[in-house]
Amino acid sequence: MVKANEFLNVCQKCKATCCKMGGPDFTEKEMKKVLKAVHKNYFIKLDKNHYELKSKRGRCPYLKKDNSCEIHKVKPLICLCWPVLSKFKKDRREFLIVECPMTPLLSKKDIEKCKKEASKIPRKIVENGWKMSTIPESELKIILKRFKKFKKKKLR
Question: How many separate helices (H) and strands (E) can be counted in the chain?
Fold first, then answer.
């Protein structure tokens, strides 16, 4: 796996673009872990076991000015799996890899580990994140525009 300091350097060079897409969704367990670690509460409950973050201009509120992650030690699966994303096609979970500066540094083993972790993200969160969001329309447009800039390809 890529070493944490190498990860941080790459993210800082790209200005943590992925963290400027509204922030991740959290399960209740993940949310409680962040709060237990005494981080500020930016959570909005969308549904049982599904929380989103209040963002400002599409930025994750836990993204620090130096483009490092304030909650790195307790971040949710969605962040830990990046640049691997999961989605559902009918009843099958599929995986995509996002082309970001981190992608070329990942080995096949790293990608498989990310897929394994991404498969643990509840289906409800994977499928309903955008549908249930309380993020204002103007901010959603900013986030989606940033997301569309990433090339994505299906993983087998």
Answer: 6, 5
> End-to-end CA distance of the chain, in Å?
20
Please state, in angstroms and rounded to a whole number, the distance separating the CA atoms of residues 93 and 89. Answer: 6
Residues 6+ apart with CB under 8 A from 82: 18, 98, 100, 102, 114
Domains of the chain, residue spans: 4-155
**Of the candidates 55, 78, 71, the residue with the CA atom closest to the CA atom of residue 125:** 78
Report pTM.
0.90
Q: Which amino acid makes up residue 41?
A: N
Tens digits of pLDDT across the chain (156 residues): 455 567 788 888 899 999 999 889 999 999 999 999 999 999 999 999 999 999 888 899 999 999 999 999 999 999 999 999 999 998 899 999 999 999 999 999 999 999 999 999 999 999 888 888 898 889 989 998 999 999 999 997
